Amino acid sequence: MKPQQHPGILHQYAPRHVAFEHLPSAQWKESHKDILIFVGGLSDGLLTVPYIPHLARSLENFSVAETLLSSSYSGFGTSDLEQDTHELAQCVTYFSELRPDAKIVLMGHSTGCQDIMHYLTSPGQRPKINGAIMQAGISDREAFDTLDDPDHIKKGVDVARRYVREGRGNDVIPDYLTNMVFAAPVSAKRWLSLISPGPEHAGEDDYFSSDLDDERLKGTFGTIGKTGTPMLILFSGNDPHVPKHVDKQLLLNRWVRHIKEGGGVVDQNTAVIPGASHTLKELGQPMNDIFARVNSFLERIK
């Protein structure tokens, strides 16, 4: 992508934390009242997800604000979902106080979807939101299973478990154990959270694996209804990070079933999107399909 300007407003929603609100075009001097707060995946930051400026221009009544969290860029390896959701709560509070009548929706991409799940389902009080969108939520554990050297992953797990036993869970494990996967320092606790090793697969980040049983899904997706937050789930049909043995539609159907059985609302635009890659980097029809679904969902929110 060639260098370019992006008109918008930089908001400092907490000390050392900012969100960039895109304006629909350079000609616009004011943003929309309602706000879609976007959180990216591992190693993402401002403007690293290629479709976001296009999404901002496509939305009819919502502005898009990209958040910077402690876990942004290379910070993900030494942060966790609890820290992310605390900072997202600060961001939601900021915009709700700035625009008291605004509708606020959270949208996660990739590991940002884990933040959405954690925001809605983990213990603790957080500001209410009007809706949530998950785009390309995948299992990090299953994505790592596709790597060529599972023994190398296991070595990292063994070292990380030892660090935790020794009370050193926040310490960074040696980079030769992690650099085949991540170009960032990773703590023992975050490595175990993302890899979520068996047999218990208890990693905090492990929301989306296809082998999780119904009891596990009931305790996560099945509790979303208690928040009263309508959901839109967009699963990329051509996501290279999803193993070939995973039936995407079947997996999505299980998530939807548990949300509904728990009294939650799943938008009719929830779907596996044909041809869509993980980041929609090819743009084109799959991206336009997703944007139409997001716009339709947001119109119902209003």
TrEMBL record:
Database matches in Gene3D superfamilies: alpha/beta hydrolase (3.40.50.1820)
Superkingdom of origin: Eukaryota
Pfam family, one: DUF1749
Name of the protein: DUF1749-domain-containing protein
Organism: Heterodermia speciosa
